[in-house]
Specification:
The structure holds two protein chains of two kinds.
Chain A lengths: L3 H38 L1 H17 L16 E6 L9 H18 L4 E6 L1 H9 L3 E6 L8 H16 L5 E9 L5 E9 L16 E3 L2 H75 L1
Parallel strand pairs in A: 1-2, 1-4, 2-3
Antiparallel strand pairs in A: 4-5
Helix pairs in contact in A: 1-6, 2-6, 5-6
Chain B lengths: L2 E7 L2 E8 L1 E6 L2 E5 L6 E5 L2 E7 L2 E7 L2 E6 L2 E6 L2 E3 L5 H17 L3 H26 L5
Parallel strand pairs in B: 1-9
Antiparallel strand pairs in B: 1-2, 3-4, 3-6, 5-8, 6-7, 7-10, 8-9
Classes of the chains: A alpha/beta, B alpha+beta.
Chain lengths: 286, 139
């Protein structure tokens, strides 16, 4: 049995770890509220522009914008949205598992692959896989801004425009609720706005100035809005996952402390018993 | 007769409500939207979007964006939008100066386009501030 002093030291170190995990849990719990608010706030713009895009795609199905026209897929691009920091449970690991699946599928079909990443974790992961990385953005932080999105997205969209990639996927986590986050793949390009609701196709917009440049702007903004939304949603997932992970870490620490305290008391009791029996033995010998 | 007006930017919705008329800085010139306007899609320059309700008028500043008009709904999808009363004159002046300096240096073509856009935005900001001051909304 270990010495009482050693056990005491262990208890102290577990306790200080527990303080940290508990603090992180509380910080995440307060950040998650603001992250969710940001997620809600990004919805009106995203909905508005999606409605416009859906109408455009509907009244101009023949419109020859490269973003709207599917073509045979000979190469693949992937945008991965991850977190900057760890200690958020299996959030990134689950996402990367999905990424590996996509990579494997691309390899099976012999498609050249290039990636763009948001967040430090994805950047590191992708570097280790030696993938062809076109763009990375790290240090996005807890409150992503639209300006974080534009750089990497433009690089990937340009690659699509120039025909270096024929299909662009967006990988990120979907926020189901605080306990559940789900990695998802979406096709970002070519755009195919969901056609769930039937729109009357009788009217069309007047376009000012000309349709072509205008539609290009609209589609670009739509892409930005979607990626921005993915970033905000991932930030939400990060805080939720961290809160849950830190909660269970704190609980584990408490359990460990309990066990160590028991061991400590036993060790102490044993030491006392041994001392007494030594004294008694000594007294008898006299 | 009213129009439903929504002013949103990618990070947050800014305004949502009913109005009699909306004025916006479309790319080809200022447009005024009344109820029953024909469906219209246009790009916006940097400038003021004004929402008129009864006799009151609320002003918002957008840095650019897209204006979508339907007969009884107007959606301003701004690149960035703030309430005009939150505009900062000092900051706008500094931005104008920065952009002018960069234009004077004649850097790469891409930078020039960038600086020109920034200059246009700063000038639009200052113009909005000036107008609001004239009608007494700003001190």
């Amino acid at each position: 049995m270990a010495h009482a002093k050693e056990i005491r030291q262990q208890i102290r170190s577990v306790r200080s770890t527990q303080k940290i995990t508990r603090a992180m849990e509380m910080v995440a719990a307060s950040k998650i509220r603001r992250a969710q608010e940001r997620l809600r706030h990004s919805a009106p713009y995203a909905d508005g522009i999606e409605a416009v895009v859906r109408r455009l795609a509907r009244v101009h199905p023949e419109f020859p914008h490269p973003f709207l026209v599917p073509r045979p897929v000979r190469s693949l691009g992937i945008l991965v949205v991850s977190t900057d920091r760890g200690l958020c449970g299996g959030l990134n690991v689950n996402l990367f598992r999905l990424l590996l699946q996509e990579i494997r599928r691309a390899r099976n079909e012999n498609l050249p692959l290039s990636v763009g990443t948001f967040g430090n974790k994805a950047a590191v992961f992708v570097r280790r896989l030696r993938l062809d990385t076109l763009a990375t953005a790290t240090g996005v932080g807890d409150s992503p801004r639209l300006s974080n999105v534009i750089g990497p997205l433009k690089v990937m969209a340009d690659a699509y425009r120039e025909g270096r990639i024929d299909r662009l996927l967006l990988l990120g986590n979907r926020f189901v609720n605080t306990m559940v986050q789900q990695p998802v793949v979406n096709v970002l390009l070519p755009l195919h706005p969901s056609e769930e609701q039937e729109l009357p196709a009788h009217w069309d917009y007047l376009y000012e100035p000309d349709g072509v440049r205008l539609i290009d702007t609209v589609l670009n903004r739509y892409l930005e809005a979607r990626v921005y939304h993915a970033l905000v949603e991932n930030a939400c997932c990060e805080q939720a996952a961290r809160m849950v992970a830190m909660k269970s870490a704190s609980e584990n620490a408490a359990e460990l402390i309990n066990r160590l305290e028991l061991a400590y008391n036993k060790a102490r009791q044993a030491a006392i018993t041994r001392e007494i029996s030594e004294i008694v033995a000594g007294a008898e010998a006299v | 007769m009213h129009i439903r007006v929504q002013i949103v930017d990618p990070e947050a919705p800014l305004y949502s409500g009913e109005a009699e008329a909306v004025f916006a800085p479309a790319e080809l010139g200022e447009v005024g939207i009344m109820p029953r306007h024909a469906p219209l899609l246009t790009r916006l320059r940097a400038g003021e979007v004004r929402v008129r309700h009864d006799t009151e008028e609320e002003s918002f500043f957008v840095t650019g964006g897209i204006l979508e008009v339907q007969p009884f709904a107007v959606t301003v999808l701004a690149d960035r939008a703030v309430r005009s009363t939150e505009l900062d004159e000092e900051e706008a002046r500094r931005a104008r100066q920065r952009a002018e300096e960069r234009l004077a240096q004649k850097a790469a073509e891409l930078d020039i386009a960038h600086a020109e856009a920034e200059l246009a935005e700063a000038v639009a900001r200052l113009r909005a501030i000036e107008r609001l001051r004239k009608i007494g909304v700003l001190k």
